[in-house]
Structure formats: C-alpha cells, structure tokens
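Q: What would this chain look like folded?
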Amino acid sequence: MTDNSALRQSPQADTPPRGAETLLPPVDVIEDGAGITLYADLPGVPKDRLHLHVEADTLTIEGEIALPAPEGLESIHSEVGLPLYRRVFTLSKELDADRVAAEFSQGVLTLRIPKVEHAQPRRIAIQVG
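A: My prediction, written as structure tokens:
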C-alpha cells in the first residue's frame, strides 16, 4: 500500500479499548479503480463475536477469540494469550463507507469498500466531427 492509498492504519489502532490488551490481526489490502478489498485473518473468532464499526472516516474491526479447551481438560500452555483482535483504519473521502460489504468464512474476514461514484474511473466517449 502506498502513502496515497484509500486506507491508512489509524493512530488509534495502538490504543486498545478500556485498557484491554489486543492482538493485531494480519490484514491485506488490495486497491483497484473501483474500491478496496480488505482481508483480515481472525482465527478462533466465531461470527457472533466479530464486530465491525464504521463511524465517520474510521473503520474498526474487533473479534473476540473463543478457543475453549475440551471438557475435562486444562491447557498447560497457550500461545494465544490475548482474547481480542482489534484493528482501526482511517478511510479516505473517496471511499463510500455506506456501501461496505462483509463476508466471513473460515476465520478470514473479507471487506469490499467501493469508491464513491465521482472517484471511480470512467470511460469518456469521443465524438467524431
């Protein structure tokens, strides 16, 4: 992603809510002429514990990890010690935050955010005179 892209990591991303520590999920962002597609890896997060918020120009992704131990067993070692993923991005004015489409499958969140009409590339017809 270049500096003039439509999506930027927000400075708020390093500030977890209410003092809770969070994990930063890996995110890939692909930008094309019509908008951006964002892929966030959120393993261990069920759909009912995934929360997306768009407020003004800020996109927030939060997911609560649910990895229960099998009944009757107790974990003696855990490499994922934090229960919450969180990422915050600042959306550029050329993105249409009202038309965000989200899909969640096998721990991967896919968001498609189109550009506003006037920011999308368009073909101009040439008149022959």
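The mean pLDDT is 84.
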